[in-house]
Design goal:
Elements: H1 2-20, E1 24-27, E2 31-38, E3 41-48, E4 55-61, E5 70-77, E6 83-92, E7 95-98, E8 105-112, E9 115-123, E10 140-149, E11 152-156, E12 161-163, H2 169-192, E13 197-201, E14 204-211, E15 214-221, E16 228-234, E17 241-249, E18 252-260, E19 267-268, E20 279-286, E21 291-299, E22 301-302, E23 305-306, E24 311-322, E25 325-326, E26 334-338
Antiparallel strand pairs: 1-2, 2-3, 3-9, 4-5, 4-10, 5-6, 6-7, 8-9, 10-11, 10-12, 13-14, 14-15, 15-21, 16-17, 16-24, 17-18, 18-19, 20-21, 22-23, 24-25, 24-26
Helix pairs in contact: 1-2
Amino acid sequence: MKMFLFICFILFCSTIPSAYSSTCDVKNEETSMNWHVENNQLEIHFEHNNLTENRWASIAFGNGPGMNGLESIIFSRGDDNSITTNTGFTPKKKKVEVDDVSYVTVKNVELNGDKLKVTVTRPLGPAGPRNFSLDQCVNWIIVPGGSVKDGKFKKHHGRIYFIKGTFHSKRLETKMMSKMVALLFALYFACVSAKTCKYDSSGFQSHWRFANNSIMLQFMNTDIKNNHWTGIGFGDDKNNLVGVFFMVSNNQVAVRTGATTEHGPPTFSQNGTNSAPIQTQSLLYFPEDKTMSAVVQIPVQFQGRNLQSCQKWRWIKSGKIENGQLTRNDKSPKDKKVCPMECN
């Protein structure tokens, strides 16, 4: 048993670097790009399907307005098939000021016919003559290209592709963190229990196991806004549920127990009830990713119900919190027939 847990511990730890090496990507008919952050360095791999001679393409960063005030990485092809990488700035539309020295590092360049593949890195934080940083939320813009004449970049032709300001470092970190939390708890449950139940659907990810007269539950809602509530209810009668409820306010998570109906809102239990309290292991909220994760230990004798018996569990999407009061949940909960003893 000790050796088994030791192996699980090694596997548990080995998930951390893999979670943090997650890569984001976008693709269209003309270009594709993927990127990841590691050790505060941003690495971007860019591909252009048809970069012909004396043409340029770029990746721009900034919130405008429009094409104004953008930081750019520019890739150009000469008539001798040489590939040059520049950085620059667009103080206004149709004008590019090219830096004397590029502040990105080119790791790899490959030109096969007219298909370009290039990989560059830059610091995630402030860099270049304008100390431009990518550690905050900005739009990323792919400009497939324009012409180069007498060493100058002419106006781009054709459409451009906006990647709205969600693919920044904090977004990437929170996506990785939320995925890592789910992965680590799933692995933990797999290690300590021969069989673990799970539910993964409709914006929810949950794992649970039965042991020592309690249920260890990992509950994740992957689409919940700040100042909203969510939760899980127990019972076959949708109008007579007991449950555990999570409130996200000021980007913090609080947990309460009580009773509710299909659409709620819940009525919370008062202190001093004869039900054993739940134990909270973890409460996390990632505002950039709108993801909430919690790990709680629920006694099988809960709010006058025996959770050891087979019954429906109901995942409640969300309702608003207005002036501190929980409002009705408009969407019907997702349900699953659960028999905790079968997960032992």
